[in-house]
Amino acid sequence: MTESYIWRDERTAWRIIEGEAVIVTPLDSKVHILNEVGTRIWELLEGKEMKVGQIIEMICEEFEVAQKKAEEDVDKFIKEMCEKGIVKIRAPGQKKSIVHSP
């Protein structure tokens, strides 16, 4: 998954409140509050898509966590956010416009 790209679903409503991202899912209007790491990933995606591997590297550096742990946590976070329709993901070489949430 490290070579895949991720970006926010443009329909997602959100705010940062007291250092935590508060997100309303576009599919069911449920509210989700992200922890510090989830909020940082959300901030990294502002206005752009990023490679999952780049996000993992930044999380390792900023939170002083081991590479393997960061990979596991970021992968789990991305899968959960994809399932909720909050972010989208595409494989390298795949066009952004044809990707759908799982």
Quick structural gist:
The chain is 37% helix and 23% strand. It has helices spanning 36-44, 52-63, 67-83; strands spanning 5-8, 13-17, 20-24, 31-33, 50-51, 87-90.
Notable traits:
102 residues; alpha+beta; Outer Surface Protein A, domain 3; three-stranded antiparallel beta sheet; 23% strand; disordered C terminus
What report would you give on this structure?
- By secondary structure, the chain is of the alpha+beta class.
- The protein has a single domain (5-92), classed as Outer Surface Protein A, domain 3 (Alpha-Beta Complex).
- 37% of the residues lie in helices and 23% in strands.
- It has three helices and six strands; from the N terminus they run ββββαβααβ.
- It has helices at 36-44, 52-63, 67-83, and strands at residues 5-8, 13-17, 20-24, 31-33, 50-51, 87-90.
- Strands 5-1-6 form a three-stranded antiparallel sheet.
- A hairpin with a 2-residue loop joins strand 2 (13-17) and strand 3 (20-24).
- Helix 2 crosses helix 3.
- It is globular and about 35 Å long.
- The two termini are 14 Å apart.
- The model is unreliable at 98-102 (pLDDT under 50).
The total count of helices amounts to 3
Q: Briefly note the structural class of the backbone.
A: alpha+beta
List the secondary-structure elements in sequence, H or E. Answer: EEEEHEHHE
**How many DSSP E strands?**
6
Alpha carbon gyration radius = 13 Å
Number of domains: 1
